[in-house]
Amino acid sequence: MRKLSRSPINSSNKLNTPTIDISNIQDNLTHELVLKLRKLNNSPSGGSEISDDSKLSAKRREIICCSLPLVYNNLCIKLSDHLLLGEEHVNRVFPEFKEFDIENGSKLFIDNDEKREIVLADPKFGMFSLFYYHVTKGYLNIELKKSNKIFCSHIFSLTFALPILVYFTQWILYIALLSHEINAFDGDFCPNTASLENKMMMGGIGILYFVRSFFIWDNLTVQIGLKKMNRMDSISAIIDTFQEFSFNIIVYGANLWIIFTEKDLQNMILNSLAMEFLMRLDNDFEELYFKNLPNAAVDIYDTMYVSREENKKLVSKHRDASYLFNAVSCLLVIPYKILVLTIFLFPVLCFFMAIAGPLCK
Description:
The protein has 17 helices and two strands. With about 350 residues, it is mainly α. It has a domain at about 115-360. A two-stranded antiparallel ribbon has the order 1-2. Helix 13 (about 280-290) crosses helix 14 (about 295-305). The longest helix is centred in the N-terminal third of the chain and has 29 residues, at about 50-80. About 30% of the residues are buried.
């Protein structure tokens, strides 16, 4: 989730962000692999004693094996993309792939509904960024004046910091639910005493999360590939990005634990639904807020959103100008990489729980 291009910091009190050298990542995908793919794509179908079905099966196996390095390459690029600025979308991920230009490959005109959807889908715009908008511009009530309506959710979002309250509510309820399950756990990791229905529930949830885990990774790829995104030269955007992806993963992990430890089938379902509800609290707040004030999302897109190149320049400039921002950015290098690795390896955990969970429950 490439080294962040920025001018070196000459001041001695600046921290240097640890980086990963990826200049040779694509070289690791050897020339032999490229030639093999070309050979497979251009190989003739006839002139051999081997049956067509056998040749097709062998070709399919070869292509599948050749596709695995692409996943590794994608992982390396995301690991080196500090703050998830979308570097993978402007560099060729494999020699045989077409290079995609975000600026030229996106629509030139985006209507207001699409702007609203982009703001809602952007993982870099969350509760802290929404509160930051209220502090810097929303307090002027420009959108209320345009609509000639009074919305309490808008006025009190700043007065009582409603977005920040939603953020802390998510963590408070999550900790409460998880703490309850941990305290109720009897310490036996493999009792093998559950009913057949409970074992089936454990296996089914494990398989469901195994399938869904691949879309979590793909969702990360899609969401950081937007033409314009929330500017990352603020601590609020950094927190929102980390919160968006990390909270989803820990909720899924907690659900697997709840299903495994809970003995009552109905409690399994209710507790899992409660966790899913927690995961959507912030998104639901944004949707309700922008449903009442859709032009606020348009204003956010027009005033706060920038292109990837602009984002890189803003981040670099702010890191040079602010010791605090530079320190926070440096401190989050390792957590960001751990987060990317966790998302990448999450299917392994789900597959393990789908097999071991029913056997040990």
